[in-house]
């Protein structure tokens, strides 16, 4: 295709050319007024001089027409998976591919917009900008969006689009959609263990019944169910049961045929914080290991330690008057009757029954344990004597009965097969070597284990550390008083801090040290699942996605007692992991994603920006109609509107590639010289005749 045009390349600056032209025009007018029509020839000569200075050229371009580009943006965000929108999207795109395939002068650029990172929602226009980064704006003939209308990066005006082509939106979804969701209004991030926290929420619905049943769960356990009014805020009280993360879940019953049940649940992870861990340490007599316990517990700023050492038992009579003694009386009644429930842990360190605590107090301790308390018995030689705690009414909760043997010989504490799977003793520093890379202990108390799990053994394979659950409480029995040798660095010492701290935290129900636990964490879209168990094997876990789709995930043993798996998730939102009665939650992206906050398809959000470009927004399926209607596509060469009742238009760009250029100067050469001489000669002859 050839295109002719005239081009000017002035020989002098443009402002000078305009100045010379103005002067020439003024002189020509004066000459015409003073000399009459004969001066017109002089004006023609001046015009030819100006034309020569302007240096006009005739330009012939050889152009090759290029195809117009139409962008089709397909929304594949989470909200597009609701209802039958995904199937609608596939049908609309297939129909557009068929129609654009028959248009020879159009190149179609297909762009897919997936879920954005973080909680930014659907970003169609960002995907459009990235997909057209290599396309000149004047080549774009139109943009078609296949979406549900839930878009979170709509430009404020048409100028921000960066192109002048019409924008059309084909909306999936139906106008009669119904859904119910729960919205958090106030949710605490932290809570004191043992206290109540208030959560405010609201049930929002469209096409619902006006009221709904809300279920409150904590760590998968149902706490309450109550009927609430829709679109009205309500409050719920939740008890913070333990330290660490308390996963509180609010779930509202679903509606029949609602869009999704993924937004029927809201999750509030509340970090449980203990005000102070109150520990009562009772030492039966002064000994070298007493300071080890005291230093360990005092080093933790979160532990409030109450420590008593029995220095003068009641049977000791040396004649010293009571008023001259500097010792205080052991407040047994206050500690073991009035305030026993204030303690999180009671430690009996080499304590022997010396008639200080009556039998009723031991019964109080047993009741305290069974109702959720914890005791640790750090035994010494007294445990094998007649004053043993195993000979008191505390015996029902003590996991081992002394057999009267006291073995005093060097030995290295070793971890049993059970201990290798238990979080308290697994991976203790030094345990990876054989024999363990820690110092020896010199004494162990012989005992017959009646119940519980033996985690460590000593000389002659005698039990050394035994843990037991007693109803709601926990009991630990350490059958040696030589842990202090590790603290003092005897034979290079050992991991006394790790062992004793883990032991104390297990007794106080630290979630990270549970024998049977299920945990899940996320790294991007990768879900890592950990199953802690005392069994030799672990059954596959069930992973439930926000959409409700469930997947069975097999686990692989990474360490004794610890089974893991990694799964790639395709959905944003809260995922639930279950293994029997154990449940864990993990969120890909935000726990309550923006993409599911507004799930109804709509035509209003995109109408202003589409209308500003001359485009349109329309649904592809109407209420009660199961068929999909895709409008006809027409080419509109002029006008400001590019849509009609059953059609949408694209605007051809007329873009072309210049393959060759030919330039023909018009004011230079012999032709220009002949014209100038001819005009000057004609003016001279005309004026000469006029004088004659």
TrEMBL record:
Gene3D superfamilies: 3.40.50.880. The chain crosses the membrane at residues 12-33, 40-59, 663-686. The keyword Transmembrane applies. The keyword Metal-binding does not apply. Keywords: Membrane, Transmembrane, Transmembrane helix. This is Glutamine amidotransferase domain-containing protein.
